[in-house]
Write a structure and sequence with these properties.
single chain, 786 residues, alpha/beta, six-stranded parallel beta sheet, elongated
Length: 786
């Protein structure tokens, strides 16, 4: 225990000095505050010291509370895993990040955090993924670690926390610890009285163990003294705001208030009188979460795998001059406060960055640090072998939707015995059947740690769904919360790095409800998780469902989301090509060479978004020219190349293809050499275009993107008409590539119920509307009847 106390004080100093240096010493080039959350870090320092240096094992994984990032970085600096230059550049360019980041920090971050609540919830899904892997023949022998979240009490306001708790209960969650920093202060003030009772009841309702850690070891010792029971009763009854205020004011005010409240009661007055002001303040601020001994003992006593919530009472800003102040969340110690505190912490001037500056026996501490189990095996970022992608075919259906084609491709994989198929895990938020995952699930079954029969099958009731749960199952069924979908995809998409076993996660969701889980989608991509998300059905093409189920902005989300390659194929042969590419893309790690054909960063890999449709359309059949295959991957190809006399090109994306092709035929009655550009990914075309521009600006005139090559043969006077069942801005930028005049068509307003034809006409994206726009906005003859 002596070593833990020394480490705690070292982490407290190093973290706060790092923040102070960034705000008050390092030259400032901008007028905005740098910040760093000193008080929120201080309240976690005892918890994190006990956790990392006494409780954790190498197989355990931790999501650190965003505002405790300075403690996390100080910890790795103390362990020799972080250069001082990184610490000195805290919140600077290429310095340690404000909040732990898997992709931006170099100190063994398990889960990125920042958007509060999400880092908490992903630990539950990581535990489910760990159980999924351990249940497979190829995952046997996986050491089961605890998935730990360090939770700010204000994070409990986030709704995704409670969605996650319910899902965990369904899946018999285990090996999960949530440690709540119950400092009862948030950005705007003090939390409501009695929150702990609500927290405990919620967790218990979902089968969690709840461990309340309210008093530190010195407090518990004081309670055993004569008069101690009265002191404990006073602490229990003291309102949060008053406790915080007395903490800030210090020992003399503590003494005055306690004596005023408790009166002259002999034993309790003597208990108080036996302590100096400083000792009294230290006693009153020694809550359970600020006592490293108590936290270490509590963790050590937890010897089961049931999900456990530790409710650790803490003081926000503990051990610093700003402890307890209601403004301390965004507040910082002043220079004067830091100078006084440096004296209090006994850190000599000039040794502020020295990891062991105040340690009286550095060798003994270094020996202890060298044998801490959690750090014993070094960095814990793993990888796994690349899975070969089997041949994927599109089938021979004449009329088929891309959603149906997706289901058939997965079904074909399910029939086979490829290594890739064995690693695919599908999931869906209560829309498995309606997004065409049914055939896959029927063959590969659903995952559960305990086998569960399909009662309908047992009772011989006919059903297309054969829902058998087994440990070997390859589908994880979720409730309807889309946040849970993307958190599970994020956890499964990191399985190779967290557990050394690669998964190929595929999730399906109704396309408009991508927005429901957008924060979690962004969070998964920020961590560089690898998965395929299928948004289907999409657009106003889902005509009978009405505006609430008709997506408009989803293509723009796909373009804007970093770490996500977005596609919207029209035909199933395109989809087959894209899926084969996607299975490989998910497994890339940056080891390859940049692609100078497209100027896309394909060597780095990433996640993939497929926007599909339920509308069956006529397929092009077996194509004689296979050049479309590379174009489908790169983002576009000429379905009908423009001729030398072309004055109109129609560029479409997705299910609107038949209308665009029909319009081109009508326009061709009176105009020559009409071009039809099939766009499969506005996202990749746009990304390649902007990347090529950057390369040219840096001195490489030969950098030409794929879309620049495609439009390079289009005459300058030509008009581009772009069309999509989605927001027209998705393709409107195409005119800027080569300076062509552009007529962008799409959907800008909420839809309604009707037939596909009704809605296409209403929004002006049917063939007749395209012909009308061309006729009305460009010179030239009109087709007959227009």
């Amino acid at each position: 225990m002596p070593h833990l106390k020394i480490i705690e004080q070292r982490l407290l100093w190093l973290s706060h000095w790092m923040i102070h240096h960034a705000n008050h010493i390092r030259p400032k080039l901008d007028a905005i505050k740098i910040g760093g959350h000193q008080a929120s870090s201080a309240s976690m320092v005892s918890i994190m010291t006990a956790l990392y240096f006494s409780a954790l094992r190498p197989e355990d994984r931790v999501a650190v509370k965003p505002h405790a990032s300075p403690i996390f970085h100080a910890m790795h600096y103390l362990m020799g895993n972080l250069l001082v230059e990184k610490m000195q550049n805290f919140r600077g360019f290429h310095g340690v990040q404000s909040y732990p980041s898997r992709t931006k920090d170099g100190d063994d971050v398990d889960f990125s955090t920042g958007s509060v609540g999400l880092g908490v919830a992903i630990t539950s899904f990581a535990s489910i993924v760990q159980d999924y892997i351990a249940a497979k023949t190829w995952g046997q022998g996986l050491p089961l670690g605890r998935m730990v979240a360090l939770v700010g009490d204000a994070e409990l306001d986030e709704g995704n926390i409670y969605e996650c708790l319910q899902e965990g209960w369904k899946h018999e969650l285990r090996n999960t610890w949530w440690i709540i920093d119950y400092n009862r202060q948030s950005l705007d003030g003090i939390v409501r009285e009695g929150l702990f009772q609500r927290v405990e009841s919620v967790f218990q309702a979902f089968g969690w163990e709840v461990v309340r850690i309210k008093y530190g070891a010195p407090q518990r010792a004081a309670f055993s003294e004569p008069g101690g029971e009265a002191l404990r009763d006073w602490i229990d009854a003291c309102p949060n705001q008053l406790y915080a205020a007395l903490t800030y004011q210090g020992g003399a005010i503590w003494r005055q208030h306690l004596l005023d409240d408790l009166g002259d009661q002999g034993e309790v007055s003597a208990l108080i009188a036996r302590r100096s002001d400083a000792e009294l303040a230290e006693l009153m601020e020694n809550l359970g979460g600020n006592c490293v001994q108590t936290m270490a003992e509590t963790f050590a006593a937890t010897d089961h795998d049931r999900p456990t919530c530790f409710l650790a009472y803490t003081i926000k800003g503990w051990g610093t001059p700003i402890a307890g102040h209601k403004d301390n969340h965004g507040g910082l110690m002043t220079k004067a406060q830091m100078a006084e505190w440096q004296t209090h912490m006994a850190v000599p001037a000039g040794q502020e960055w020295e990891p062991l500056a105040t340690v009286t026996d550095p060798k003994a501490l270094q020996d202890f640090l060298s044998n801490v189990p959690f750090f014993a095996k070094g960095p814990r970022q793993f990888t796994d072998a690349i899975l070969p992608v089997p041949h994927i075919t599109a089938g021979s259906d004449r009329d088929i939707s891309t959603q149906m084609g997706f289901g058939k491709i997965l079904d074909d994989l399910a029939k086979g015995d490829s290594d890739l198929a064995a690693r695919i895990v599908t999931t869906s938020p209560d829309v498995t059947g309606t997004t065409n995952l049914g055939p896959w699930v029927n063959r590969r079954k659903l995952f559960a740690r305990t086998a569960q029969a399909d009662t309908f099958q047992d009772q011989k009731i006919p059903s297309t769904a054969k829902w058998e749960f087994t440990p070997g199952g390859q589908h994880i069924e979720l409730g309807i919360a889309e946040m849970n979908l993307f958190l599970l995809l994020g956890a499964a998409g990191l399985s190779h790095a967290l557990f050394g076993k690669r998964l190929i996660p595929i999730g399906t969701v109704y396309d408009p409800f991508i927005a429901r889980g957008l924060d979690a989608l962004n969070y998964a991509c920020y961590q560089d998780a690898r998965f395929i998300i299928v948004g289907t059905p999409s657009g106003v093409t889902l005509a009978p469902e009405g505006g609430a189920h008709q997506s408009i902005a989803a293509p723009l989300i796909g373009m804007a989301q970093d770490g996500l390659a977005a596609f919207e194929p029209a035909f199933v042969d395109e989809l087959a090509v894209i899926m084969a590419w996607a299975f490989d893309y998910l497994q890339r790690d940056g080891a390859g060479d940049p692609d100078e054909r497209t100027w896309l960063r394909d060597e780095t890999g990433g996640a993939v978004y497929l926007r599909l449709s339920t509308n069956p359309i006529e397929q092009p059949g077996q194509r004689a020219d296979q050049s479309f295959r590379q174009g489908a991957i790169d983002g576009g190809y000429w379905l009908r190349p423009p001729g030398p006399n072309c004055d109109v090109v129609i560029a479409y994306q997705g299910v609107i293809a038949p209308e665009a092709i029909k319009a081109a035929g009508l326009i061709a009655e009176t105009r020559r050499d009409i071009g039809v550009l099939a766009v499969t990914s506005a996202d990749r075309l746009n990304a390649g275009w902007t990347a090529a521009q950057r390369a040219r600006a840096r001195g490489n005139p030969a950098a030409i993107s794929h879309i620049e090559q495609l439009l390079g043969t289009v005459p300058a006077h030509c008009t581009l008409l772009t069309v999509i069942d989605g927001h027209p801005a998705t393709l409107a930028w195409l005119g800027g590539v080569r300076g062509h005049r552009t007529i962008p068509l799409g959907v800008e307003h909420f839809g309604q119920t009707g037939t596909i034809g009704d809605l296409y006409r209403h929004f002006g994206i049917d063939a007749a509307s395209m012909v009308e726009r061309i006729a009305g906005l460009t010179p030239g003859a009109r087709p007959a009847g227009h």
